[in-house]
Amino acid sequence: MNRVRSYLVLVLVFAVVTVSIAAAAAQAPAGRRGFGGTRGSLLGLLRVEQVQKELKLTEDQIGKVGQISEKLRAEMREPYAGLRDIEDMQERRAKMTELSNQFDAKARGELREVLSRVQIMRLYQIRFQVRGTLDALNNRWIAGRLELTDEQKKKAAELDKATQDKVTKAYSPLRDLSREERREKMAELREKITKLREEAEKNALGLLTAEQKEAFEKMKGDKFELPPRRRQP
Q: Would the pLDDT of 108 be above 50?
């Protein structure tokens, strides 16, 4: 039972690390929806009505995106279930990141057959905005486009790890609380994670030169804001 509870907490932590650092604090519970369901993932974004409208998706495209999502969830369910057998927290987190990247890569391949080039480009612009600067700087493609130096890449990786460690530490006490106590603690934790997100974003931007900041802003395209996620009672 303790291992199961620990696993559930880790899923929550993962969702916050990968999404809430760059998005609204409301992203924290997203991990409970399952892998690929957070609004920082390509398929997760495509489930949001405002994103569908921004991309001008047809009903046929929306249906096909749903089919892709169900297909990939089925394919990745067993690998994700294996995470609960990994005792070491750092190792488990690394494996979860690896699986998330695999899921995303599969999604990219499938979506190329459904979305137009223009739609895919806009979808990536939106994700850049949702996931934020720190996540972007640790993406090899973006790092290459921005021509980051080895020193900048090293500092971005260190900042990312430090932020993840802080989030993990913040959420660790949840495993020892009752459901009611955990619910009461969440409001406090959301505020703390928001501050961590803002600090990480500021520090990540501080790693860039003026020219790199300008180039990154152009890569993000027109500003797009996701609607707040409705809280579950």
A: yes
